[in-house]
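tool=predict chain=A
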Amino acid sequence: MKSVGVVMGSASDTPVMDGAVEALREFGIPVEVRVLSAHRTPDEALQFARHAAGRGVGVLIAGAGKAAHLAGVLAAATSLPVIAVPIASGSLGGLDALLAMVQMPPGVPVATVAVDGGRNAGLLAARILALSDDGLAAALEKSRDAMAAKVRAADEEIRTRYERGDP
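tool=predict ok
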């Protein structure tokens, strides 16, 4: 099975990026986690991206706040899919990071999830890997079914309670 490279621009991004790592591990997907900065360690970030496919990485996830150039830098150095996670930081609450990530120039695609959407980034990476892994695809489908069952159970409980006139 291919692994996923999870990169964050700062150690302070760990709480958000843990969501990606946890989602991937739930499906048994190997994860390589690094702290690399597009601005403070650009050579290391580029090297990481350039050699990721050779290490068996199938998707990269990059979380960063503020100027948020990390995902774009990684995408410029690899043909692997790159998923960006804007991190809410600074006075703009992640809007600056979101805008930086969704405005990539033509030819350098970066998929972007919601601000602080680490878990969804992990799930999206799993879906990408599942395109060539039937076992992973089945596990993702089972997980979706379990989520739906929880919502249906909650719906039934709420409807029943309100039909009885309970607040």
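The chain has six helices and five strands. Residues 58 and 129 are 7 Å apart (CA to CA).
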